[in-house]
Structure to design on (183 residues):
C-alpha cells in the first residue's frame, strides 16, 4: 500500500458514507478530508467536522484566488477541496480519503494522476431511489434533482479505477479494504 490519496465517489443515497465509516473505524490511520460547501448544515452537522460551511461569497472568493484542488456544483450547491488542506495532510504523511462527487474526482485525477478513484455503486437504480427517500432529509424537488445527477455520475464512473457494488455493507467494506490495499 504505497498510494496516499484515495477518492471515493458514489451516487446520493448509495450508502457510501456508511461504507466509508466502516472502513475508517477499522483503519484509523486513514483520514477523511473535510470539504467546503455552500450547502446549509443538516441537523447534527458541525462546521469544521462534517464540512467547512461557507457563504456563496466566501466560496467564490476561494475560486477567484485559486484555492481549490477541485470544486463542483452539485444539486444547486457548491462543494470544494482546498489545495492547502490536502497538501498539508500529505506532508504530514497521512493517507487521505476524499469523499467527493464524480466530476470533482476526475479533476483530482487530472492534477494528481497517482490518486486512486473508487466508485461505490448501488445494486440498482430502484434500490437507490428507495434509500434516498428513506433518508427523509430532502424534499421532493431535491430528490428528483439528485436522481438525475445519479445517471450522469454512473456514466462518469466508467473512467474510475475501481467500482464496488454496495449490496451488502460488510462485503462492501471488505472490498474497499482490499482495493485500497492492492492499489
Ligand atoms: P451532501 O450534500 O449529501 O453532503 O453531498 C452531496 C455530494 O457532494 C456528494 O456526492 C458528495 O460526495 C459531494 N461532495 C462533498 N464534498 C465535496 C467536495 O469537496 N468536492 C466535490 N466535488 N464534491 C463533494
Amino acid at each position: 500500500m504505497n498510494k496516499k490519496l484515495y477518492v471515493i465517489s458514489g451516487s446520493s443515497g448509495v450508502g457510501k458514507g456508511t461504507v466509508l465509516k466502516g472502513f475508517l473505524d477499522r483503519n484509523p490511520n486513514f483520514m477523511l478530508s473535510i470539504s467546503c460547501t455552500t450547502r446549509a448544515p443538516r441537523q447534527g452537522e458541525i462546521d469544521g467536522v462534517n464540512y467547512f460551511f461557507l457563504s456563496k461569497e466566501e466560496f467564490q472568493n476561494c475560486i477567484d484566488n485559486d484555492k481549490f484542488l477541485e470544486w463542483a456544483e452539485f444539486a444547486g450547491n457548491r462543494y470544494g477541496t482546498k489545495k492547502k488542506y490536502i497538501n498539508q495532510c500529505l506532508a504530514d504523511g497521512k493517507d487521505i480519503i476524499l469523499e467527493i462527487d464524480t466530476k470533482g474526482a476526475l479533476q483530482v485525477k487530472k492534477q494528481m494522476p497517482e490518486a486512486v478513484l473508487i466508485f461505490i455503486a448501488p445494486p440498482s437504480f430502484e434500490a437507490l431511489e428507495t434509500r434516498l427517500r428513506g433518508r427523509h432529509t430532502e424534499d421532493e424537488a431535491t430528490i428528483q434533482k439528485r436522481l438525475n445527477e445519479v445517471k450522469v455520475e454512473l456514466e462518469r464512473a466508467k473512467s474510475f479505477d475501481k467500482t464496488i457494488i454496495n449490496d451488502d455493507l460488510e462485503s462492501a467494506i471488505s472490498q474497499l479494504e482490499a482495493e485500497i490495499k492492492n492499489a
